[in-house]
Write a structure and sequence with these properties.
Helix content: 25-40%
Largest sheet: 8 strands, mixed
Strand content: 25-35%
Number of helices: 8
Strand order of the largest sheet: 4-3-5-6-7-8-9-10
Length: about 260
């Protein structure tokens, strides 16, 4: 199935109308947790409302699963999985590596997706057939690097602190074998993988709305993304994304050593 890029651009636009005016302002920040810190902002809520309104108007027979307001019509064949601001911690810190994510699943398979970073005016999109970049430097088709060896790879994760116990040991095994490891950037790391600047992204504890939109963008750019046990990334949890099948296999081997 092919989704019109114009629809993905429109989703990005209505979300940006809510997020950009609130970025780098002292807007209200709530904490979802009674212990610990999981921030949510007015921008998160208002952007998700805007995306839901657009999808409900344009595609009334499609379901929606969103981070802030949960699910509706999840028994439908076509379901949008949305995260209005992936990287809320970056958002409230004034760092432009957050993004709006919207992905379309058909019978559970991610087939099209959007990652929008409105402050840098960048769109990373998959229409179901190919992955595309629109932004500074000109529009182009996305393609991953052809890195096959861990020793040549650049690895990203949000923070090594997200890995606990044996999972930390597994992550460390991979990091010890790569050329360069960097931290932070949330969804932007996956976009950079699809764009050919990053070779590996490894994370844990993800929800479907954190990854579904990024799956088709990566895959149609030539990359591979799965759970650590090789299962479909749509199930979320422990995720590894790689620029090539060969690199993906080598990362999986170390993660499951």
């Amino acid at each position: 199935m092919v989704i019109e890029l114009s629809l993905l651009r429109q989703i990005a636009s209505v979300a940006a109308e809510q997020t950009l005016p609130r970025f780098r302002t002292m807007s209200l920040i709530d904490n979802k947790f009674s212990t610990g810190f999981d921030p949510v902002t007015e921008a998160d809520r208002e952007a998700e409302k805007a995306i839901r309104k657009l999808i409900n108007t344009r595609l009334p027979d499609h379901g929606i699963l969103g981070e802030e307001f949960g699910g509706e019509n999840l028994d439908h064949s076509h379901v949008w999985v949305i995260d209005p601001i992936d990287g809320t911690r970056a958002f409230i810190s004034g760092i432009p590596v957050w993004g709006t994510l919207a992905g379309l699943t058909i019978e559970g398979d991610a087939v099209a997706g959007l990652m929008s970073q409105p402050f840098t005016n960048e769109l990373f999109m998959c229409d179901g057939e190919a992955s595309w970049y629109e932004g500074p430097g000109g529009n182009r088709r996305l393609a991953t690097r052809k890195t096959k060896e861990l020793a040549d790879a650049t690895l990203f994760t949000t923070t090594p602190a997200m890995f606990k116990d044996n999972k930390r040991n597994a992550y460390d095994r991979v990091e010890q074998h790569v050329r360069l490891a960097r931290y932070g950037t949330d969804c932007y790391a996956y976009a950079m993988l699809a764009a050919g600047f990053v070779d590996l992204v490894i994370e844990t504890g993800l929800h479907p709305y954190d990854i579904v939109a990024l799956v088709p963008i990566i895959e149609k750019a030539g990359g591979v993304v799965s759970t650590w046990d090789g299962g479909p990334a749509e199930k979320a949890g422990d995720i590894v994304a790689a620029a090539t099948p060969e690199l993906h296999a080598k990362a999986l081997e170390l993660l499951n050593h």
